[in-house]
């Protein structure tokens, strides 16, 4: 266990699974006290309907030597988010790191359908999850972040700013808007937080081997290479721990304000901070995805 973040208080909103779960674990491993919120708990699943829970994330934090608190919160409900902020204020009096990883909209995604054919109900739900929930969270939690200089806000997204500068054929319009909004959230938050000495960025993993992705390929994190034979470009994928290490390294950097307002990728931050994925590699999926080149792990795996 590292001690780089000892004494820091973090909230990982939407920390039930995937990248956000790994970020929560790595922040805890580095010494932060981590609040983990989400809609999937041991008592009730969210609409995502997967087995991962916020309590499971806290168990992983504790296994890594850290301290975590699981709280079931629906970040689309302002009252619940306000109560979350009040609780953190009572218990800690501060919030140093806010990770906004709220999503849970994959089940609403209909790839390849133009907006007039895509379910309107599902389209609007993705917008609510990807934009409204983030604004509600910012409204209630940023007053705690700005209480002390040095706070960090991370809006999780899917794709670099360069990648999302274009709308790509086959992408759902609402998914695109929900994810691309993180770039603009980071820009706006960086400007609003500057006078308080705080930093805001957007962060994207590469091709993430999330729990759902591994399940879709019929592999585990230990056996993921078995999927490469049928899908060669899966070779550029990365474990959730990679982006978790990226955000932990950023949070521990006293000069992180130089990145404020930017959208950063896990591969990009690995070059800055020198960390690796769990297998010792340094994946950088976006250098292929942005250029439209065939996936090739030469040079990093």
UniProtKB/TrEMBL annotation:
A Pfam family hit: adh_short
InterPro entries the record matches: NAD(P)-bd_dom_sf, SDR_fam
NCBIfam families per record: PRK08303.1
PANTHER family referenced in this protein's UniProt entry, alphabetically: DEHYDROGENASE/REDUCTASE SDR FAMILY MEMBER 1, DEHYDROGENASE_REDUCTASE SDR FAMILY MEMBER 1
Protein name (database record): SDR family NAD(P)-dependent oxidoreductase
């Amino acid at each position: 266990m590292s001690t780089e973040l000892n004494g820091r208080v973090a909230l990982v909103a939407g920390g039930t699974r995937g990248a956000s779960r790994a970020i929560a674990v790595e922040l805890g491993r580095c010494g932060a006290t981590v609040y983990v919120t989400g809609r999937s708990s041991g008592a009730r699943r969210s609409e995502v309907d997967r087995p991962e829970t916020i309590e499971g994330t806290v168990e992983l934090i504790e296994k890594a030597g850290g301290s975590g608190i699981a709280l079931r919160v629906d970040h689309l409900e302002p009252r619940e988010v306000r109560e979350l902020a009040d609780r953190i204020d009572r218990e800690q009096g501060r919030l140093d790191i806010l990770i906004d990883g709220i999503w849970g909209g994959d089940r609403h995604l209909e790839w390849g359908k133009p907006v007039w054919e895509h379910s309107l109900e599902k389209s609007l739900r993705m917008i609510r999850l990807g934009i409204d929930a983030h604004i509600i969270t910012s409204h209630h939690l940023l007053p705690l972040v700005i209480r002390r200089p040095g706070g960090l806000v991370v809006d999780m997204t899917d794709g670099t700013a360069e990648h999302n500068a274009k709308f790509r054929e086959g992408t759902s319009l609402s998914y695109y808007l929900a994810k691309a909004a993180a770039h603009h959230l980071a820009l706006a938050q960086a400007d609003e937080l500057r006078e308080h000495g705080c930093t805001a960025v957007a962060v994207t993993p590469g091709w993430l081997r999330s729990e759902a992705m591994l399940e879709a390929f019929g592999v585990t994190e230990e056996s993921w290479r078995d999927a490469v034979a049928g899908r060669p470009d899966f070779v550029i994928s990365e474990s959730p721990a990679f982006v978790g290490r990226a955000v932990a390294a950023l949070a521990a950097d006293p000069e992180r304000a130089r990145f404020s307002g930017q959208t950063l990728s896990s591969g990009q931050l690995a070059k800055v901070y020198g960390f690796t994925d769990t297998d010792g590699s340094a994946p950088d999926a976006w250098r292929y995805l942005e250029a439209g080149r065939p996936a090739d792990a030469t040079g990093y795996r």
